Amino acid sequence: MLIPLAARARGDHYFPWLACGDAVAAELLERMGADVEAYLNDLPTVLNVLWRTRFIRDTAQGFFLMHPGAQGVNLGCGMSHHFQWLDTGANHWLDADLPEVMALRRPLLPAQCPRARLAEVDITQPGWWGRLGLPTRDATAGEPPPPPPQPVLVLCEGVLMYLEPAQVEAVLTEFAQCAPEGSRLVLDVLTHRAVGTAARHASVGPTGAEFRWGVTRLSDLAAVHPRLELLHEHSVAECYGWAGLALETLWWPWLGAPLYGMVTLGVHDSP
Fold first, then answer.
1. Is 245 exposed, middle or buried (0-12, 13-18, 19+ CB in 10 A)?
2. Residue 19, exposed/middle/buried by CB under 10 A (0-12, 13-18, 19+)?
């Protein structure tokens, strides 16, 4: 959790064109008194975190512009605080993570608004959508029929690459089966070539975590369920200009997907 927290708190100094202005992260890091210099020395990861934060913020702001009263949820929230940028005054927000994470988060980042709440969840266990009390696609029968539920925005950053492939497929399937039409899932992805290489990652390696899931083709994400649709895909290579894009194009036949990227999935009902 300290890796993205450090990047959002202090990374603006290194990459001002990607600055996210996360005042909450800066204040929280100061309160915690954690030594994060090693993470700040890993500048490629700092850039990745700032880039994905900007992508999430811009994508979510666009979603809430269309659905100002909708529900947003951050799965695997850690110490992030996206609602500081996304509060429309009418929408609802849920930060959710494992019980041990939320036990640490609650005294440090309690919910500051009646429309925001915290919850414990393990998304590797089936039924997490219902346990979080999120709106579902199933309408209750009645006369007249109730209005369709508003779509839900789901964020899942820095989480899925640490799960087994079958667990990731189950998470995507539950989202597809439960989310109301028009909902969005924003997630980050690694190429399948990165699986098993976490020990060589400057920041992740020392934690003992491992990359267990990666993407062979981005189209595989939508193929998990008939309701899923690949709406947007972006690669961090964009941050490195023409040289980064050229190198990724050169390596694409081997990588099959961005070395690191952001994806937006949507759900739709067939006519």
1. middle
2. middle
Per-residue pLDDT tens digits for 13-31: 999 999 999 999 999 998 9
Residue pLDDT, tens place only, 51-82: 999 999 999 999 999 999 999 999 999 999 99
The pTM score is 0.94
pLDDT (average), residues 157-177: 98
Q: Which residues contact 58 (CB under 8 A, 6 or more apart)?
A: none
